[in-house]
């Protein structure tokens, strides 16, 4: 198993570096540029052979231009083929392409538009993909917990692999749901970030990506034993939302019929997801500290990062989330001005978003300016996520206001 994993990893590195990786990177950029031109200047209707032809035409022209340009540039200046920027972003672009290909597979497996309607959405395929995501998240949580007790075994790598599978299932389910909303009725088609069920799936995927990146960066697989069970707890709430009819595709209320929704909401959940990972790291810190204070020589300690490393994990998770949450709040104010005529109205959601922003801003202030570390900040990360959860879910459940379209 280890030899196979090493061989696969080495093979992947060989096609992700040098001229091959450089060419693929610029091919992706060309494809994105071509499709962006089509989006902003092309036809506005959806579906039909004409739209598909335009997608292939503009996407193909953009990808071809990117490929030829990269080959020419690498031939003229060979050193450019070792671009650090390309190496940094290529894995993300590869992942996005894989997500799109997986979505295409789901579309081929889905029933046609004639089999579904707004009144009867029971045959939609995206709920099945979401259910598979649930299964892999639960399996990943079990594997990560098992890893604490058997760190030398293969279960840790299996936990990481199943977490990535869950991410791809969740992301492709959202893309499929986007497609299905237009398939049901082009008039109600919209990005799948409009209700609590959709954004819960988005939150699971983003939190997992943040965690998995930190796991790889810090070799901190034990953190998954705290993050994945938190995600599994959220899954029970998402299942309850589905059972209550909140998982159906519905038309957007007027306030959400804006391009801002596609930007503001995902950025917001980068913040939420990263703060959730910081909470998991805080719990890990407190758990390890308790074991050490008790003089434990448990095998668990060997599987966990040190207290200093865990403290850094908390900090880096907040560093990822706070700028995204800040930008989301600024863009949300711009959206509010466009939708309601004012940048800020002290709506309950806005007020609690400000509280969350102040909580983590103060966290970074005392960490950077005053040198706070350790247990106080671990407790702060846990308490901060409780505040975040109330902003995310509690406001929708117990308070009303301009954001009441997301209420239960």
Protein architecture, described:
The chain is mainly alpha-helical and 408 residues long. It has 2 domains: 114-246, no CATH class; 253-408, no CATH class. It contains 13 helices and no strands. Helix 2 (18-41) runs antiparallel to helix 3 (48-76), helix 7 (196-218) runs antiparallel to helix 8 and helix 9 (260-293) runs antiparallel to helix 11. The protein is globular. Mean pLDDT is 87; it is low at 1-13.
Observed structural traits:
408 residues; mainly alpha; 2 domains; 13 helices; 0% strand; globular; disordered N terminus
What is the topological layout?
Elements: H1 2-15, H2 18-41, H3 48-76, H4 84-109, H5 126-149, H6 155-184, H7 196-218, H8 224-243, H9 260-293, H10 300-303, H11 307-340, H12 348-368, H13 375-398
Helix pairs in contact: 2-3, 2-4, 4-6, 5-6, 5-8, 6-7, 7-8, 7-9, 7-11, 8-9, 9-11, 9-13, 11-12, 12-13
What's the quick description here?
This protein is mainly α. It is 75% helix and 0% strand. It has 13 helices and no strands.
**How many domain modules?**
2
Mean pLDDT: 87
Structural class category: mainly alpha
Specify the biggest β-sheet.
none
β-strand number: 0
Residue windows where pLDDT falls under 50 for at least 5 positions: 1-13
Number of helices: 13
Q: Cα distance, first to last residue? A: 47 Å
| CA-atom Rg in angstroms | 23 Å
Strand composition percent: under 5%
- Helix fraction, binned, reads over 70%
Tertiary shape: globular
Element pattern in H and E: HHHHHHHHHHHHH
């Amino acid at each position: 198993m280890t030899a196979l994993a090493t061989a696969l990893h080495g093979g992947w590195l060989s096609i992700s570096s040098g001229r091959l990786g450089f060419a693929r990177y610029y091919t992706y950029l060309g494809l994105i540029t071509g499709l962006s031109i089509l989006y902003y200047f092309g036809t506005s209707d959806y579906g039909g052979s004409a739209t598909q032809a335009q997608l292939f035409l503009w996407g193909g022209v953009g990808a071809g231009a990117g490929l030829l340009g990269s080959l020419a540039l690498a031939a003229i200046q060979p050193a450019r083929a070792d671009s650090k920027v390309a190496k940094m972003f290529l894995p993300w672009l590869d992942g996005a392409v894989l997500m799109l290909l997986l979505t295409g597979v789901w579309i081929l497996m889905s029933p046609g538009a004639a089999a579904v309607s707004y009144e009867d959405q029971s045959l939609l395929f995206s709920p099945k993909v979401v259910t598979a995501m649930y299964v892999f998240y639960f399996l990943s949580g079990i594997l990560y917990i098992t890893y604490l007790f058997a760190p030398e075994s293969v279960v840790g790598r299996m936990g990481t692999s199943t977490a990535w599978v869950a991410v791809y299932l969740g992301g492709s389910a959202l893309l499929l749901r986007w497609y299905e909303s237009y398939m049901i009725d082009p008039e109600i088609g919209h990005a799948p970030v409009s209700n609590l069920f959709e954004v819960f799936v988005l939150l699971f995927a983003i939190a997992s990506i943040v965690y998995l990146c930190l796991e790889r960066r810090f070799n901190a697989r034990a953190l998954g034993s705290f993050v994945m069970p938190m995600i599994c707890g959220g899954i029970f709430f998402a299942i309850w939302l589905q059972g209550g009819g909140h998982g159906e595709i519905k038309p957007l209320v007027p306030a959400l019929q804006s391009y801002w929704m596609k930007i503001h909401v995902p950025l917001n959940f980068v913040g939420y997801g990263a703060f959730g990972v910081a909470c998991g790291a805080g719990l890990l810190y407190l758990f390890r500290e308790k074991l050490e204070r008790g003089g434990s020589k448990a095998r668990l300690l060997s599987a966990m990062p040190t207290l200093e490393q865990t403290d850094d994990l908390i900090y880096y998770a907040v560093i990822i989330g706070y700028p995204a949450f800040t930008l989301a709040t600024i863009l949300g104010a711009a959206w509010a001005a466009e939708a309601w005529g004012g940048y800020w109205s002290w709506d309950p959601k806005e007020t609690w978003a400000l509280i969350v922003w102040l909580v983590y801003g103060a966290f970074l202030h005392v960490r950077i300016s005053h040198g706070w570390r350790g247990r106080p900040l671990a407790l702060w990360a846990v308490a901060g996520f409780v505040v975040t959860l109330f902003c995310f879910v509690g406001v929708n459940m117990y308070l009303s206001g301009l954001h009441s379209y997301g209420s239960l």
